[in-house]
Amino acid sequence: SPADDSALLEALSRIQLQHAPTELLVTLSEAGLLLVERDQPARHIPTFARQVFDVSGPGDTIIAT
């Protein structure tokens, strides 16, 4: 699980220390999203495979919102 990826969590910890965001939302391509909120454990939001004709990833979804 991305929420258990020590290298990813270390990088996010450095971003939090340097920039002090309240929330970070990281796109993980086909693995979904990782939401990191201050003083909370990271929360993985998975994607669900579907048969589609036009592919959009989590980054496209975030930009659209």
Report what the structure shows:
- This protein has 65 residues and is of the alpha+beta class.
- It has helices at residues 6-19, 58-64; strands spanning 23-27, 33-37, 43-45.
- A 3-stranded antiparallel sheet has the order 1-2-3, with helices on one face.
- The mean pLDDT is 85.
Q: Give me the strand/helix succession.
A: HEEEH
On the 0 to 100 scale, the average pLDDT is 85
Main sheet: which strands, in order across? 1-2-3
Measured distance between first and last alpha carbons: 25 Å
Beta-strand content bin = 15-25%
Number of strands: 3
Whole-angstrom Rg = 13 Å
* Main beta sheet: 3 strands, antiparallel
Q: Which stretches of 5+ consecutive residues score pLDDT under 50?
A: none
Query: Which structural class fits the helix and strand makeup?
Result: alpha+beta
Helical fraction = 25-40%
Number of helices: 2
**Which outline best applies?**
elongated
How is this structure best summarized?
This protein has two helices and three strands, in the order H-E-E-E-H. It has 65 residues and is α+β, with helices and mostly antiparallel strands. The protein has a three-stranded antiparallel beta sheet with strand order 1-2-3, with helices on one face.
Any descriptors?
65 residues; alpha+beta; 3-stranded antiparallel β-sheet; 3 strands; elongated
Secondary-structure map with pairings?
Elements: H1 6-19, E1 23-27, E2 33-37, E3 43-45, H2 58-64
